[in-house]
Amino acid sequence: MKVLIMGCGRVGSELAALLDAKGHQVTVLDVDSATFAKLPATFSGVALLSDGTDEDSLRAAGIEGMDAFVAVTREDNRNIMSAQIAKHIFNTPKVICRIYDPLREELYQSLDLEAITPTKILAQMLEERLTK
After folding, report:
1. How far apart are alpha carbons 94 and 87 in whole angstroms?
2. What is the pLDDT of residues 58-103, one digit of tens each?
3. What region does 91 belong to: left with phi over 0, alpha with psi -120 to 50, or beta?
4. pLDDT confidence of 119, banded at 50, 70, 90?
5. Please, are residues 24 and 89 in contact by the beta-carbon 8 Å criterion?
């Protein structure tokens, strides 16, 4: 599988390493080259200094041949914008984005985007452990 990940923070770098170790072709984009230091020395994918909210940058990163796009930057607005571009302009088959604000989840769903909300997931996990 060919995967393009926007954001090379803790989650993006970990996901890139996991996918790469399983033999997937991974490209990681970030606007800060220092974040690429989070990738393991064994990472065989591509790391590009680029903005995933720009169509030309996504095209240069190979979005048109990707099977999946994942947006995991720290910024909800950048994640939603890049996910919309990947899904609706480039017709990427699988698009997933992270959002921190659970109140935005409904908006993402109305835009036909698959969103993961760590805030909500963690709250649910804590509630389950508290009420066991």
Report:
1. 8
2. 999 999 999 999 999 999 999 999 999 999 999 999 999 999 888 8
3. left
4. confident
5. no
CA–CA gap between residue 115 and residue 108 (Å, rounded):
7
Superfamily of domain 2-130: NAD(P)-binding Rossmann-like Domain (3.40.50.720)
Please give the C-alpha separations between residue 26 and each of 3, 44, 113, in angstroms, as whole numbers. Answer: 5, 8, 21
**Considering all CA atoms of the chain, what is the largest pairwise distance in Å, rounded to the nearest integer?**
50
Strand bridging mode 2-6 / 25-30: parallel
The pTM is what? 0.92
- Cβ partners under 8 Å of residue 36, min gap 6: 8, 28, 30, 47
Residue pair 97/108 in contact by the 8 Å Cβ criterion? yes
Q: Which residues contact 33 (CB under 8 A, 6 or more apart)?
A: 49
